[in-house]
Fold:
Amino acid sequence: MNPGKLLILALAPAAGVFGADPVGACAEARAILRQVPGFPLDPGEPVRLTPGRKELFLDDHTLERLENIERRLHPPRKSGPVIRPGKPWEGASIQIRTGPFWNPDQKQWMMWYLGGYATSRDAIRWDKPTLGLRDYQGSKDNNLMLPVTRYEFKDPLTGRELLRQDGDGTTINHAIFDPGDPDPDRRYKGAGHKGPLCCLQGGRGAGFYPAVSPDGRTWRLLDSAFVPTADESHFDVDDERRFYYATVKHPGPYGRSVYLSVSRDFDHWSDPRDCLVFHADKRDQELGAERVRLHLRDPNLRKPAFHRPEEYVTDIYNLPVFRYEGLYIGLPTVFNHSGNSRVNSDGFSMTELASSRDLIHWDRAGNREKFLPLSELDGERNYDTAQLLAANRPVVTDREILFYYTGLKWRHHPDDVKSEDRAPLPDSGAILLARLRLDGFVSLDGGDPAGTALTKPMKWSGSSLHVNADAQGGEVRAEVVDAVTGKPVAGFEMGRCETVRGDRLDAEIRWGAAAPATLEGRAIRIRFELRRASLYAFWTR
Structure:
């Protein structure tokens, strides 16, 4: 940051990425969400301080005005692969769409990846336990969790077999652990498929049925609903508000786009096809074309096999979503097409960062910067050199956030230009880990001279004010301002504030003998002063 640069921003209320909705889309989803206690159906409703819940800076929900402050997105630090393909039944690569779940009875983390199952005590070192559930080449000595119905899928143009599965059940994706369900036979949930994900589901087209299980091993499909989707989807449970949501893929503006389906009881789901919530726009096309050009010029990056500038398109491949401190955070996979092959499109993908208060209106953070960018080749040691797709549920510890994601070395191999009838290259995809500071998605950064951040009016609740801030070599102070008069509240002025220094995940803001509990119920604003410091979150307790 340029210390001499004065930046003053009066922040307008967030209206969502796609503006007003003139046709009443998402009516069915809204009707269901309206029944969820405490669900914020109006994104512009007043800010409410809830003791213990942190306020982040991915959007402008709490911010009124910034002076000499820069907002900065922080990509997580990559830690490499945690699960590699190493078993014959895993093939050339393994992928993940849903993050791990903690099982308090077993005292271990559980992870369902596409085709297998893994466990861990620390969410970092993973084992592939022998489950004895499914036969592979005459043996059940494997970790194959999800039985599948026999089917074959052939390329309609050449007749070449693309996919073949054998088994005695149905395919289950996106398995989650839901201990909040009072029915023990439904504690595990998943997305069930009656055949290839890409093809017919009993004549209903592509999509999934809700599936339930008492143990995450044996599954039952529910015929009460069918959620149509193309080959990408995510779903999860909001543990606090007790409802379920799925983001699915259908065509939209500029190509692949994301639609929303929700459910109160998991049995009945809204039709996502009238609820488009996230798609690429004109700015993405400009940014995507520039990314392709820069990508092709960088000798350290994987080059697409097909390159035709007239076929450049950028779209949204999928949207994993998770709840964090009252906010829905999305990790959209942005796919940059570099050209078309005979059967698909070539290009590369990375992950950006977005947020929502209601799952319908979304704000894209960091001016569309890459949150999880592709890695350099590094002698073929890195997996995430062509495609990168995040899982939807990170593990949150008391100091950091652990993100799991799929890294793939290839979208198309150079040999595909001659013939795409080629066996997959071995060891070409794995499950990777990246780490982020607790609350560390976006910071407000002040330089020298100090900058200030003023919140919107909010009703105070709590007996203390806390911040997550990095003030190594700098300082953080705050004052409480009356929401009506704009004047500092007596006893809580900036001059009375005890300075916060150092790197602190939880630092209490104090004003000598003044007791913040006396502000209970009062309409106030908070003005933070940052000198050579970064502020990640604030909250009351």
